[in-house]
Amino acid sequence: MRTDTELLQGDARAYAAFYRRHEDAVLGFHLKRVGSAELAADLTAETFARALEGRRRFDPRRGNAGAWLFGIARNVLSRSLERGRVENEVRQRLAMQPLELDDHAIARIDELSDEAAQQALDELPEDQARAVRGRVIDEYGYDELAEQLACSESVVRQRVSRGLRALRAELGTDE
Amino acid sequence: MTRLPELERELQRAAEALERRRRPWWRISLLGGGATFALAATAFAAAELLLPEGDPVPKAPPEQRASLPDMDPGTTRLTSLRAEDPGGGLPWGLSVTRDKAGNIFCAQVGRVQDGKLGVIGRDGTFKDDGRFHPLSPDANQSGVCGGSPPGGDLRLSHNGPPIPASGFTGSFLSPAGGCREHVANPKATMSPQTRRKLRNVPVCKASSLRVVKYGFAGRGAVEIEYGGVRIKADPEESGAYLFVLKPRKGRRLTLNVKYDDGTVCRERSVMDIEPCP
User: Fold this and answer.
1) In a mutagenesis test of the A interface, which of B3, B6, B55 is the best target, namely the one with the most A β-carbons within 10 Å?
2) Is pLDDT at B48 greater than 60 in this prediction?
């Protein structure tokens, strides 16, 4: 498999491969912060356009390509928030066409937030994950869960509360 | 398959165009017979970016609230006045609230989104989260209050130091955070206790500071000018004015208010107000 550096130094097809490799991560980054699939797609387009324009300046000795790309993503997001509109200067310079998203594309971007939640849930300690799944997804009562998990109701409540707090912190929804 | 195949195609196409541009001119000449390139500037729909909403600005601490008029939040009204920020983004707005006894009114400024006054999480405020945080009349945010005349013809003028573009003017030691003014020689002007307190408070970037001048010139005002910006006064809003400028060293700003009877009121500072009608 070619490295990110090789893809960035390669031809147009190599850059498309670089995009495919990092699309989900950048889309997810923006989606988490703006909460809208359309805006996340727009911000992602500008991020990759900037990376394309600046890829010859990427220096692997100063850090990996992922960190470099996320630096660009953060910069695009903060400048867009400051200006109150999604930046599009580089896309204009590169004569890129605006994105037109249909419902299917929006749904596919929105999946990313579910995937992030699922991943965060999987990373919880087993006892908390089972308590959160049982209470929030399967909608069991605390008493039923206490029986299933062979512990007291107050322990279940504590696990659910700790689990949700950890999820909120991980998903950035408690800011 | 990617989630945005259209974007992948556009990026590949743009990358190919960049490669063509980077080829030496003699190769272009041989290949395309001296082709000329015209880059079409594609019109993009400027996507309106509503900031995600965060927690409201925290309320002022009880000891501070005790010294403030007892405001009636039900009377809060965002005036129709808007001022552009020199750096772009959400416009600035001005709101008024009356106290419960109806004797006093207070004005507040901030950034406006979706008909609400608030502050932006930037310049150290709300950990720079980039969100919009709504303001309530009893929030930890400075403002200015004045007597409420029986006919409702408001007169008020606020003067203060530049504030950050976040719009937050409350205490930077509050949970909302924020930035502080640059102090040239802190050892000479601040006690060790104060310096310790401010150690972790970031200094506001000069480019983030704004001169925000606001007030009400009364219903008789016709035209109001400040720092070279002129607005038409609206009698329905008691001649409300709001100017947001970048501070400039050595610039002396004067507020000029022209009234419908021909008189002009000039305010250079709080201590220098010519008689107004």
Assistant:
1) B3
2) no
Contact across the interface for B46 and A88, Cβ inside 8 Å: yes
Residue A51 lies in a domain: yes
Mean pLDDT of B31-35: 34
pLDDT at residue B211 above 80? yes
One domain for residues A32 and A78:
yes
Distances (CA, A) of B11 to A41, B45, B203, B204: 13, 19, 40, 38
Q: Quote the domain boundaries for residue A16.
A: 4-103
Work out the minimum CA distance from A97 to partner chain B, whole angstroms: 7
For residue B13, the distance in angstroms to the closest alpha carbon of chain A comes to: 7
- The model's pLDDT over A66-110, given as tens digits with 9 standing for 90+, comes to 889 989 998 898 888 877 788 888 998 888 888 888 888 888 888
Query: Is pLDDT at B69 greater than 90 in this prediction?
Result: no
Cβ under 8 Å to B: A residues 68-127? 77-78, 80-86, 88, 91-101, 105, 108-109, 112
- Split at pLDDT 50, 70, 90, the class of B24 is very low
**Residue ranges of chain A with per-residue pLDDT less than 50:** 173-175
Backbone angles phi, psi at B228, to 5 degrees: 85, 0
Q: Where residue B45 falls among pLDDT bands split at 50, 70, 90?
A: very low
Subunit contact A82:B89, Cβ cutoff 8 A: yes
Is A108–B3 a contact, with Cβ atoms under 8 angstroms apart? yes
Domain range summary for chain B, segments of one domain joined by +: 1-44, 62-209
Tell me what ipTM this predicted complex has: 0.73
Same domain? A44 vs A93: yes
Which residues are paired to B264 by β-bridges?
B258
**A84: nearest CB among B12, B90, B126:** B90
pLDDT value, residue B152 = 76
How many domains does the structure of chain A reveal?
Answer: 2
Return the residue in B8, B9, B10, B48 with the most chain A beta carbons within 10 A, the one to mutate for interface testing: B10
Q: Which of A103, A132, A150 is the last residue of a domain?
A: A103
Pairing of strands B77-83, B92-98: antiparallel
Does B127 contact A20 at a Cβ distance shorter than 8 Å? no
Asked whether the beta carbons of residue B7 and residue A44 sit closer than 8 angstroms, the reply is yes
Instruction: Let me know if residue A108 belongs to a domain.
Output: no
Taking the Cβ of residue A158 and every Cβ of chain B, the question of whether any pair is shorter than 8 Å is answered with no
Let me know whether A87 and A134 are in one domain. Answer: no
End position of a domain, from candidates A43, A75, A103: A103
